[in-house]
Amino acid sequence: MSGSRFQPGKSGNPKGRPRKPRRPNVSAFEIILDKMLVITQNGKSREATVEEALQQQALKDALAGKRMAIRKVLKMIEAREKALEKKNAGPRHKIEIKHHHDSDNANAALRILGIAEPEPKFPSRWKVHAWATQAALSRPGRKKFDRREVDSIKFFTFEPDTLKWPRGKIA
Question: Which residues contact 119 (CB under 8 A, 6 or more apart)?
């Protein structure tokens, strides 16, 4: 039997069974985000990834004023800025940033966030919306309010009768 192709003491498969190719370290979520969809944008159909479609929807919702979408878009911008910063990590020129704070900037921020607005009868006097005042009152660890502070809070709040005062916080 010396003419056989198999010799005694030698494996018939010296390299062994070939290994399965390893899957890349990609989560199922990433696989779904890479799938292609047909979306309609400005009346025209085009292909886009699920991720791009979700980003477009978040941007649309943010422009409509939805707060969660605005936060999402801001996080997307922040992540993009970090990625660009990492990509372009070469030498940079130092830019000096000067902060300018004034009451107009703060008032605009309060108005944009829906926290406060000028009182219609007295535009120079600003009042806080009841929901924002309630959030401040509901914070734990607050000191007790005396009657003068309670009156002041009510005076500078729209619809102060809707406030629920925490028990034991009014002296």
Answer: 125, 126, 127
Residue 58: count of CB within 10 angstroms of its CB: 19
Give 117: exposed, middle or buried? Use CB within 10 Å, 0-12, 13-18, 19+. middle
Please state at what angle helix 67-87 crosses helix 50-63, rounded to 10 degrees: 130
- Read off the amino acid at residue 166: P
Type of residue at 150: V
Exposed, middle or buried, 157 (CB in 10 Å: 0-12/13-18/19+)? buried
Quick: pLDDT tens for 93-126.
Answer: 777 877 666 666 788 888 888 899 999 999 889 9
Rounded (5°) CA angle 105-111-115: 115
Given this model, what pLDDT does residue 35 score?
A: 86
- Looking at residue 71, what DSSP letter applies? H
Q: In which element (H, E) is residue 40 found? A: strand 36-41
Quote the CA–CA distance of 72 and 41 in Å, as a whole number: 21
Choose among 51, 55, 58, 57: nearest CA to 36. 51
Asked if residues 110 and 116 have their Cβ atoms less than 8 Å apart, the reply is: yes
- The C-alpha angle 154, 158, 162, rounded to 5 degrees, equals 70
